[in-house]
Amino acid sequence: MNDASDREAARSAPAVAARSATMETKIGTLIKPIIKKVVLAVANLDCVDVADYKKTDALPGNAIIVHDDRLYTRVITKGSLAFGEAYMDGDWTPATSLMDVLTGAIKAGSLEGKLQAVFKFFQFLSANLGWINPQSIFRSTKVAKMHYDLGNDIYEKMLCSHMQYTCAYWRDVPDALETAQLQKLDLIGRKLKLKPGMRVLELGAGFGGLSYYLCTHFGVKMTCCDLSEEHLVYSKQHFNHENKTLVLMDYRDFLDKLIAEKCEKFDRIVSVGMMEHVGPVNFPNFFRKTKQVIKPEGLFLLHTIGNSVDDRNQDPWFDKYVFPGACIPGPQPFFQPGCIGDGWKLEDWHNFGVDYMRTCLAWREKSFAARGDLPKDKYDDRFWRMWDYYLTGSAAGFAARSIHLWQFVLSPEGLPPSLSPS
After folding, report:
1. CA–CA dist 244, 325 (Å, integer)
2. Which residues neighbour 409 within 8 Å (Cβ) at sequence distance 6 or greater?
3. Are 48 and 66 in contact (CB under 8 A)?
4. How far apart, in whole angstroms, are the C-alpha atoms of residue 383 and residue 366?
C-alpha cells in the first residue's frame, strides 16, 4: 500500500468506525428485549434504558443504566470482554456502585461462561492439552512490559512506601494500607523462620520492597529474579542493599542456570504474586526445579491468588487489558504429580482473600485521589474507567469468595514437629 492510500485509509477509518457503531446500536435496539432478559437470567444484571431512568429512582444494586443500545450487540458477540469495554466506552454505568454490579454478576456466574461456550471450549483445549502455553517465556515478557512497565508514577501514588503490589495483611488494621502492608512483610519473614545470614531466593521480585524489608529486618542475603526492567531499575534506585543481588531473567532460565552451574543451595525461597503468571501447565516443572535449589531443611513460602474451582480460562477482559496470559489456578493444580504432596511437603496453607478486597479498594481510593497529579495525555478518561473496572472487579471477586489469597509454606522433606508453623 502506498502513502496516498495509507492517508486515504486513515481519513476514512473514523467514518467506517462511526458507521459500525451506528449499526451496532441499531442491531442492539432490535435485539434488546431478548438480550435484557438473557443478561438478567445469566448474570443477574437488570438493564435500565437511560431514557427511562430518573435520578430519583431507587434501583437495586444489580441495575445498570444503558446509555447506548450497542451494549446488547457487543455482549452477545463478545461476552465479558465487551461488557468491560462497554463500561470503558461509557455505554453503561452502575445505578448504585460498580462494586455492587460486579459482585452480583460474579456471584451469578460469568457472562463468558454462559454466552460463549464454544470460545471457552477452544480456550480449555489450548490450556489443558498443551496446544498453547499461555505462560510461555514470550508471553510472560509481554505481561511484564504491558502491565508492570506501565509507569512508576501511578504505582508510587497507589501503593505503600515499600511499593507492595500484592495483598496486604489487614489483621486488626481498620484503614491504613501502609500498616497492613508492613504486617504482610513481617508475616512472610516470620513464616519463613528467617535468621541473620540466611541465603534467600526471591522469584518475582516486584519493585524490591519485600527483599529490602527482609534484608533490613531479618538480616538475610537476597537473590532476586524478575522479568520487568522497570522493577529492577526501581529496586536499584529505591531499595538497594548490600546484601541484595538482582537478576533480570525469566525464572525458568535462572533456575536452569543455578542447577547447571551447581550453585550453592538456598536456605529459603519466597515467591509473592508470581504464580499467577506461571500457569498450571508449568507447575510440575516449577516445583521440581525449585526443590533442586534449596537445602533439605529449607522452607518455601508461596503467596498467590487462587480460584475456588479449577477454571484455567482467564477472563477475556482481564487477559486483554490487565494481565495477558495469566491464570488464577484452583487448588487441584498445586497438588498434581510433581508438585505439593508428591514433591514438596505442605506445612501450612493460609487463606486471607478478604484482605485482598480491602487492598484493591485502598489502591483504587489512592490512585483516584492522585488522578489530578498524573499526566492526562498518558492517563485519559478511558484509562481511568479501565483502571476502575480492574480494581473494583478484582475487589468484587474476592468479596464474592470466587477468588482467594493463599500463602503456602512448603518444605522439601517435612519439618520436625518442633519447627512446624504454629
Report:
1. 30
2. 191, 192, 299, 300, 301, 346, 347, 348, 349, 350, 421
3. yes
4. 16
The span from the CA of 238 to the CA of 208, in Å, is 8
- The CA–CA distances, whole Å, from 282 to 28, 239, 252, 338, 340 equal 42, 31, 10, 11, 13
Unique residue bearing C-alpha cell 526501581: 234
Contact in structure between 105 and 290 (CB atoms under 8 Å)? no
Distance (Å, whole) CA 267 – CA 262? 15
pLDDT average, residue stretch 111-116: 51
Neighbours of 291 (CB within 10 A): 20
Write down the H helix ranges in 116-151.
117-128, 137-143
- Which residue has 543451595 as its cell numbers? 265
Torsion angle, CA of 59/64/66/69, rounded to 10 degrees? Answer: -130
Q: How far is CA 286 from the centre of its chain?
A: 19
Q: Count other C-beta atoms under 10 Å from residue 285's C-beta.
A: 14
Strand 199-203 and strand 244-248: pairing?
unpaired
Structure confidence by residue, pLDDT tens digits, 269-284: 999 999 999 989 999 9
Can you tell me the distance from the alpha carbon of 355 to that of 331, in angstroms, rounded to the nearest whole number? 19
| Distance from C-alpha of 174 to C-alpha of 49, rounded to nearest angstrom | 39
pLDDT in tens, 340-374: 988 899 999 999 999 999 999 999 999 999 999 99
Cα separations in angstroms, 95 against 103, 104, 357, 368: 14, 13, 21, 20
Reduced to 3 states, what is the DSSP secondary structure of residue 189? helix
Q: Comparing 25-34, 73-82, 308-317, which segment has the lowest mean pLDDT?
A: 308-317
Q: Choose the weakest-confidence range: 170-179, 198-207, 259-268, 372-381.
A: 170-179
